[in-house]
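User: I've been trying to design a sequence by hand for this structure and keep getting stuck. Would you show me what you'd pick, starting by listing the structure so we're on the same page?

Assistant: Good idea, let's start from the same input. This is the structure you sent:
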């Protein structure tokens, strides 16, 4: 583990402690969307990504060039397996929504984006990669609910539960 620092060598601030210009907010948001995609391509969802779990590190420039600030994601112990956790989609939506809402304070155009469902749908279809261009747009398909199928699922679940209870009482 290494210390993440600012331009003065002090501990890097969390994003919530920094004010951004619209251009900086757009750039950092784009960088972090890339990191969210990179993690999901590796099968991981952070699960608690927000301005409180991202530091703004200073990356020194080379040969007299000015350095730049880059976000660094921290606090990964609660990260979940995207394919193996039933809540992974909800957690990803929350992570992406947190970033949209935070950076949207500085760049209001971000508040109109919908990256979460776009990313998840690409992931589910096997089309997500680190090079996948994202638009921030997602058209939701509104279809009628097949109530017979829903009721059939409920009845099947009830029957399965009744059978399980019967097996347990016989044991």
């Amino acid at each position: 583990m290494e210390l993440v620092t600012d331009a003065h060598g002090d501990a890097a601030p969390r994003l919530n402690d920094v004010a951004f210009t619209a251009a900086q907010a757009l750039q950092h948001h784009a960088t972090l969307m890339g990191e969210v995609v990179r993690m999901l391509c590796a099968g991981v969802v952070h699960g608690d990504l927000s301005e409180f779990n991202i530091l703004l590190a200073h990356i020194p420039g080379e040969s007299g060039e000015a350095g730049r600030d880059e976000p660094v994601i921290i606090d990964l112990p609660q990260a979940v397996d995207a394919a193996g956790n039933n809540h992974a989609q909800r957690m990803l939506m929350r992570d992406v929504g947190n970033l949209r809402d935070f950076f949207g304070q500085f760049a209001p155009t971000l508040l109109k984006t919908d990256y979460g469902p776009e990313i998840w749908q690409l992931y589910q279809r096997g089309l997500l990669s680190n090079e996948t261009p994202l638009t921030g747009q997602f058209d939701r398909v509104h279809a009628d609910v097949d109530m017979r199928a829903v009721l059939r699922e409920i009845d099947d679940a009830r029957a399965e539960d009744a059978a399980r209870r019967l097996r347990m009482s016989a044991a």
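That's my pick for every position. To get oriented when you compare it with your attempt: The beta strands are 44-45, 54-59, 68-73, 80-81. The mean pLDDT is 93.
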